[in-house]
Amino acid sequence: MISPDAVSGLHRFFEFVDGATFSELVGLDPREKLALVKVVALAMHADGVVVGEEVEFLEDVVAQLPAFEDADDTELAGFRSQAVISVAAAHDTEGGVDDELADIAKVLTSPQLREVTYGMAVAMTWADGVVVGLERDFLVTLATALNIEGQRAAELDEAARAWLCD
Hints:
Blueprint (H helix, E strand, L loop, with lengths): L3 H13 L13 H15 L7 H13 L8 H19 L4 H12 L3 H16 L6 H13 L4 H16 L1
């Protein structure tokens, strides 16, 4: 279960994203919700090893987001299942992850939502306490796909890491 401190940190991370508020995510349409969960699932699989802390993070953080506050357990499980299926398919095809990220970028049009989504992916890479090279590579690819410049990506990395690790 995600700790109360982590939830508080999540709120602080949202404050860091220019123009984003935690409640802003309430109005996401189903495609945006699925895109956000797909990015977190892609980050979970970035190093090729999925550990319990990452699965728990995916389950708990999605349940904590305002976008999913009206969703029941079945709907939440459906979003997670769809995301995991998409991730598996992306990893099974040449260029699949890049193609998946390009499709996700078409859905996530708001700069604030892109930054929040990027931050969620960063936090997922830290869920097991260490970020390895493959995860860093994924984050660079994700930042590029979401059109987040290098300096801004570094700022978001630090804010998301602080949310989860401090």
